[in-house]
Amino acid sequence: MASYVLSGAEALTFSRGRNPVGFGLMEFSRSGICLPKMGAISFTGSNLKAKTVAPRCSASSSRPASQPRFIQHKKEAFWFYRFLSIVYDHVINPGHWTEDMRDDALEPADLYDPRLKVVDVGGGTGFTTLGIIKHIYPKNVTILDQSPHQLEKARQKEALKECTIIEGDAEDLPFPTDSVDRYISAGSIEYWPDPQRGIKEAYRVLKLGGLACVIGPVYPTFWLSRFFADMWMLFPKEEEYIEWFKKAGFKDVKLKRIGPKWYRGVRRHGLIMGCSVTGVKRESGDSPLQLGPKAEDVDKPVNPFAFLMRFILGTIAAAYYVLVPIYMWIKDQIVPKGQPI
Ligand SMILES: C[S@@+](CC[C@H](N)C(=O)[O-])C[C@H]1O[C@@H](n2cnc3c(N)ncnc32)[C@H](O)[C@@H]1O
């Protein structure tokens, strides 16, 4: 048995079984009391004493979200997907974001009624949208992305023909306040220079009682993975997601851990799709959170040399994360089942 304390909006105590890196669903109440779910993970209030050990998951220090990584910028992300869109469905999905994981991650989004109005923000080539339309009428689903190249791939998918597909920025959504039932965003937050602003926007566009589901990476603890993660893009810590949701005004904030099957629950390298975080809009209207002007103005000219260097270094770091799932897959094949890898 191991336990560790997270500090975030509230101090959270994680009490763990034998495997310190498994999956589970965590619930964070407004008072900071965290309730056990699915029997995998239990929490207590911050006033209880707990043994503090070296964190094994995402609970370690990283660069603050306010210091963006090389590709955690709108312009860099635009160019990154200018090229990645060509192979995205063939490279990213098999290694990091399988259909099983997608369905598991969408389960907390509670897509119980096909008539719900859903937006898929940073919807890209429509891989997550294909999971959404298993439950929702496609005509009720809008895919938004800042990359026309990614959206072009979505347009080519027959199953998504009835969806609305638009270009836009996750930090400045072109939807009215209180207008949608579900806000879903998978694997996009890591590119937003100001993730808190994106989550505040999720709150704004949802109807009262509507639910936001943000699926995203988790921070690695292995030194080399941490190095490349911090170069490439934002790998938030679990408690950062919770804090962003709570600050934006959401209630019933929950976090479900996800990951590829062949990782056997290993999270030390971080995961590009490592958790699904949900929250419910508590009051109609805009988020109670007040923010200053946008962190990044895409129309502002950038130094082309600095831009190129950021882009090249960020892409090198991304290449490391193409290798990690292959390495984990080989380990899974070699190490006998039931043993840790
Ligand atoms: C890893 S892909 C995920 C695509 C899709 N959601 C999926 O599940 O396969 C990330 C997407 O986020 C988009 N993106 C990055 N920054 C964005 C922003 N500020 N606003 C909207 N989309 C953004 C990228 O263009 C890219 O298509």
Automatic annotation (TrEMBL):
The region called SAM motif II is annotated at 163-176
Q: Which residues form the MPBQ/MBSQ family SAM-binding methyltransferase profile domain?
A: 69-278
Region annotation (SAM motif I) ranges? 118-127
Keywords noted in UniProt: Membrane, Methyltransferase, S-adenosyl-L-methionine, Transferase, Transmembrane, Transmembrane helix
GO biological process annotations for this chain's record? methylation
The GO molecular function terms of this record are: 2-methyl-6-phytyl-1,4-benzoquinone methyltransferase activity
Report the transmembrane regions from the record: 205-224, 307-330
Transmembrane helix among the record's keywords? Answer: yes
Concerning CDD domains, the annotation shows:
AdoMet_MTases (cd02440)
The UniProt annotation puts the region (SAM motif III) at: 204-217
What Gene3D superfamilies has UniProt attached to this entry? Vaccinia Virus protein VP39
Pfam families per the UniProt record, alphabetical: Methyltransf_11
Taxonomically, the superkingdom here is Eukaryota
| InterPro entries hit by this protein | Methyltransf_11 (IPR013216), MPBQ/MSBQ_MT (IPR044649), SAM-dependent_MTases_sf (IPR029063), SAM_MPBQ_MSBQ_MT (IPR031164)
Family, according to the entry, reads as follows: Belongs to the class I-like SAM-binding methyltransferase superfamily. MPBQ/MBSQ MT family.
Protein name as catalogued:
2-methyl-6-phytyl-1,4-hydroquinone methyltransferase 1, chloroplastic-like
